[in-house]
Amino acid sequence: LNTSRVSGSTAAKVAGETCEKSGNLLDDCIEQLFGFPLDESGSISIDDLLEHGTRQLDEFNRDIRRLFRENGIDTSKPVELGSRYGTGETVVTNDHPDKEKIGQLLRDNPELSNDFKRITGMLELAEIGRQALEFQNAYRQNPQQAVAQYAHLFNTKLTSTVLLEDNRAQIQFQRIPKAAVPNAMGYQEQVPGG
């Protein structure tokens, strides 16, 4: 995997099934997925993901704050948004006093939730790529030390939330142990003897 650039052929493995079913060109599918077109070489860089993801996060912030004002949501207190594991539902993850109202607004405006998922997905992918490049560079210098230093990349999962505070939106990344993530069926696997 070349984490510095994602080519159209690599993306085809991700989006190709949807594109084949809908009959759209791969470039159109990538543009729909990320909200911006591939560059002239037919690829997307980590910098592209960061640039477009950050711009889209700013637009999302502007749109959701307008919605908050229109619906009397207290914007003087930080709002932290994340995705519920298993359903992908966009939820308030902190104890904001208007948590229920915000949740209902997000359910009533699914395009806003879809934007949130696209943006956080893009920025998470960029962060994963950035961390993978750091690991690859360290591995070239000293493989054993790199594996020890970057072991967290192999036994944790990157997740993110977006903090809306002081009229800004900021993505925050966390790593959680893979063992703490329920499997796709919604239950924890039993470990023998434990």
Descriptors:
194 residues, alpha+beta, four-stranded antiparallel β-sheet, two-stranded antiparallel sheet, 7 helices, 6 strands, 53% helix, disordered C terminus
The rounded distance between the terminal residues' Cα atoms is 36 Å
Structural class per helix/strand content?
alpha+beta
Q: Overall 3D geometry? A: globular
How many distinct helices? 7
Helix/strand order, N-terminal first:
EHHEHEEHHHHEE
Residues in helix, %:
40-55%
**Computed CA radius of gyration, to the nearest angstrom:** 19 Å
> Major sheet: size, sense and barrel closure?
4 strands, antiparallel
Q: What is the strand content? A: 15-25%
Mean pLDDT: 81
Low-confidence regions: 1-24, 183-194
The tally of beta strands, per DSSP, is: 6
What order do the strands of the largest sheet run in, or round the barrel if closed?
4-3-5-6
Please render the helix and strand layout as text:
Elements: E1 5-7, H1 8-22, H2 26-34, E2 43-45, H3 46-70, E3 79-83, E4 90-92, H4 99-108, H5 110-141, H6 143-149, H7 152-155, E5 156-165, E6 168-177
Antiparallel strand pairs: 1-2, 3-4, 3-5, 5-6
Helix pairs in contact: 1-2, 3-5, 5-6
Task: Note down, in words, how this protein is organized.
- The chain is α+β, with helices and mostly antiparallel strands and 194 residues long.
- Mean pLDDT is 81; it is low at 1-24 and 183-194.
- The protein has 7 helices and 6 strands; from the N terminus they run βααβαββααααββ.
- The protein has helices at 8-22, 26-34, 46-70, 99-108, 110-141, 143-149, 152-155; strands at 5-7, 43-45, 79-83, 90-92, 156-165, 168-177.
- Strand 3 and strand 4 form a beta hairpin.
- It is 53% helix and 18% strand.
- The strands form 2 sheets. A 4-stranded antiparallel sheet has the order 4-3-5-6.
- The longest helix has 32 residues, at 110-141.
- The protein is globular and about 55 Å long.
